[in-house]
Request: fold
Amino acid sequence: MKISFKAGSSLARRNFQKLISNKLAMAGGVIIFVMVFLAVFAPFFTAHDPSFVDPANRLLQPSSDHPLGTDSGGRDLVARLLYGGRISMLVGLLSALGSCAIGVVAGCISGYFGGKTDALLLYISEIVDSFPQTILVLIMVGVTGRGLISLILIFSFTGWMGTHRIVRGRIMALREEPFVESCKANGLSSFSIIFRNMLPNTLGPVIVSLTLSTARYVLGEASLSYIGLGVPLNIPTWGNIINAARNFQIMQQNPVIWIAPGITISLFVLGVNFFGDGLRDVFDTTQ
Reply:
């Protein structure tokens, strides 16, 4: 046990050193940390209420009181960006967690049991995957209606197929390993073998998938909110901020209203992708 602990510590240390030596991954990690920090501690960086509508101060240009100006409702843009980041990043993270959880469970069951169970789950996966996700999301939003929880559930139930395929392949390879036969010989249940002994060996690709999916769902929320089918307009999100600037006159005369959230979304997605690529390199056993 002592040797195993040292070996595990040595591997973790090597992986950590490999990650921090990746400059793009570190840059992505810094971007993510700064943006999460600003969103979590938003009250310390702005005194404005992001939802307070003040028609008398609508479309103000940047000033000392409103560093980025106000939108068409007179709401402070900095406050909207900071508080909206909470919701947008939360939607991205929870949607990624939900889709990965479904994909992991389906992939474990499919890969371990094989046969008709695998064929059925693979068939369901292919059916869902045959529809463009954007079209499928739009259809489900039209059926369930707009809402924060419903949007997270829709993203979760339409984005699990990639994780399912990754985990399924890994479990299929692992079930032929001697340690699995040893677990069966010792009388361990299928549940214990799958989720306690085999699943930990698939977490590397799953973590990478989780990271990159977060960025994808942040973009998905922004896209749906921009066309009025995402989070309700009374909730500040990055997508809803851009939605408030859809007027052509506003886009011309107050470009900061759509440029600021656009840059914010791009920075966050770029940071997550850089960090996710770094994690992929860390967990790549061929290097």
Summary: Confidence is low (pLDDT under 50) at residues 1-7. DSSP finds 13 helices and no strands in the chain. The longest helix spans residues 77-113. The radius of gyration is 23 Å.
